[in-house]
Amino acid sequence: MECPKCGHHLKKYINPLPTVDIIIELKGGIVLIERKNRPFGWALPGGFVDYGESLEKAALREAREETGLQVTLKRQFKTYSDPARDPRHHTISTVFIASADGLPSAGDDACNAKIFMQQNLPPLAFDHAKILADYFKSRTEAACP
Amino acid sequence: MECPKCGHHLKKYINPLPTVDIIIELKGGIVLIERKNRPFGWALPGGFVDYGESLEKAALREAREETGLQVTLKRQFKTYSDPARDPRHHTISTVFIASADGLPSAGDDACNAKIFMQQNLPPLAFDHAKILADYFKSRTEAACP
Predict the structure, then answer these.
(1) Mean pLDDT value across residues B131-140
(2) In chain B, what residues touch A8 (CB-CB under 8 Å)?
(3) All domains of chain A in start order, with CATH
(4) Which of A29, A104, B91, B95 is least surrounded by Cβ atoms within 10 Å, i.e. has the fewest?
(5) Strands A110-116 and A29-35: what pairing?
């Protein structure tokens, strides 16, 4: 990294970027948003965690900003860190499972927000197809006697 | 942030820093290290995740560097993000449960590495007392019929 004014080389420690994604359970399905920005396509609502913000607060904020829903966090699911999961930079995303009432309405980085069933998922950006496969698998396992 | 050469104000996005901590199960106890640096005291082995490194690789690397043990990761436990969990800066730590053979020997940021039993834990740095309370509670719950 260089100073844009004098060109001095600046030492900079680069760290992976913490993010959250939220699986919002609503009316028997889950809420997905269609992205305004690259990479385009459908995705779980989510985004960057602010400095000084807990993962839980970031999850509530991102869900509200992108879907208009006041969600209730049910539990932390899992944290995903494959360096290739986001084509733009290395993000580490902690995924939460949440519930909500009402209907989603797209906001912030989302141009569309809809409820999808497991049998009817659209093509997904990032590693969200893997996250949802893990999620639906965990639900099946939890239902076993 | 300012350029140290010309004083130009630099826009910098500050993000929380991803870290890992590892609960290494060994000989009926868990491995803790005594820290060389502030905050002093005993702690779970762990450290910063490198850019481009998965959480799993970081956990294996930090366990090896600080305890000399080649650990096997059993599962991801939970991710902790309270902005006050580290007095130096905001870190978000994903905790893994691992197993190992042999005996720990301190390295890197650790000046001591020992096996402790639940009944005999030393005072712990960061939020590691809370992490271990959650861990021992989850073991008790898992043992219920």
Answers:
(1) 95
(2) 3-6
(3) 17-143 (3.90.79.10)
(4) A29
(5) antiparallel
